[in-house]
Amino acid sequence: MPLPDNAQFNRALCDFLARATTPFHAVQVMAERLAAAGFRALREDQAWRLEPGGKYYLTRNGSSIIAFNLGSAAGPEQGMRMVGAHTDSPCLMVKPQPEKLRQGYFQLGVEVYGGVLLNPWFDRDLSLAGRVTYADGGGAMRSALVDFRRAIATIPSLAIHLDREVNQNRSINPQTDILPVLTQLQGDKAPDFRELLAERLRAEHPGIDVARVLDYELCFYDTQPAAELGLEGGFIAGARLDNLLSCFTGLEALLAAGGEQSALLVCNDHEEVGSLSAAGAQGPFLSSVLRRISGDETAYAGLTDRSMMISADNAHGIHPNYADRHDDNHGPRLNAGPVIKINANQRYATNSQTAGLYRLLAREEEVPVQAFVVRTDMACGSTIGPITAGGTGIRTLDIGVPTFGMHSIRELAGSRDAWDLSRVLRRFYDVDGPLFPA
């Protein structure tokens, strides 16, 4: 299946972002795409019967997903071409006992997930989505996804008249200042939030038997859809570009690959909080799948030695108002190509071999390449790249689309870069022969 053109790609990306409001919804949408393309679902608790040329996918926790094909011409023992990304984004998550009734307004207590840029969350039209675990009428425990799909809350700003120094010295207390307002009530009793969830579940999934809600994992999100903008449509603005843009880019590349080489896409949850979880990159999900594909430890060692991972996670574009936050020679520009991310202290896993291979592939696709190195006097972030490389021994490249406003409720990327990255990833999936010299 060929890749769509740039305009079609961006329209599909915006549609994906609209549907993938949480990691659970992102995985659900990706699984639907894979199944429609002929990938067969696997379960970790069952025996696998894998065949040359076969296409498969499996999920863990409903929030991480691995999809792979066993090459029709080259089996996994000859090396797998792998792309990794993450499904989670910084957000506000609802606390277990969240109900607040203050000054007649019904609010929900929230916990900050990841490194959230809090200022942009004020005065937004917010909705709520995630996974709900409930008991049915027979007492059995079940789970279902929920998404209110409309604006049900907002976090109002405090007027400047009541905080005259706000533009000079504003600080946000995450415990007291960012509680969303859902409605105004008469009386002194707040609604039962779990019952509100039960009603929404019944409305969204007609026919299911919800006796009571047991627990939930719910995120607030901005209802404003992703969109192209700029005088010439040069930008894409939207929520969760970090890192659903990379999930979508890797998925499109895998679906467009020829299938002759063994290829894999992994999208992990919990990267924004360190990746240490059953579904995170620091957990056993990927290594467990690769071991089952290999069949034994000797074959697994050969697979990892001959494979390569491209860890795709957004990069910091050089901001025209804050250009001094970048190294003079390493300020990536939007729409000037994907960015190889390099750090001598191994906060990124790129080395000269993996960067060199990517540069060759990009040249073949006529895609420009940029490089990012953090200022030497600033701390450097990290990705699933070093975690995957350290846990599996697989050569890894860190790369990403340059972005403004990373970890904001609405981020900004160039309208060409994701498509360019997907083209190179598709070529990477189809590389014939050994990836590296013996």
From TrEMBL:
Residues annotated as signal peptide: none
Name the UniProt record assigns to this protein: M18 family aminopeptidase
Protease keyword on record: yes
Domain of life: Bacteria
Cellular component GO terms, alphabetical: cytoplasm
MF-aspect GO terms: aminopeptidase activity; metallopeptidase activity; zinc ion binding
Enzyme Commission code(s) on record: 3.4.11.-
InterPro entries named among the record's database cross-references: Peptidase_M18, Peptidase_M18_dom2
Keyword Transport: no
GO biological process: proteolysis
PANTHER family membership: ASPARTYL AMINOPEPTIDASE (PTHR28570:SF3)
Keywords, in A-Z order: Aminopeptidase, Hydrolase, Metal-binding, Metalloprotease, Protease, Zinc
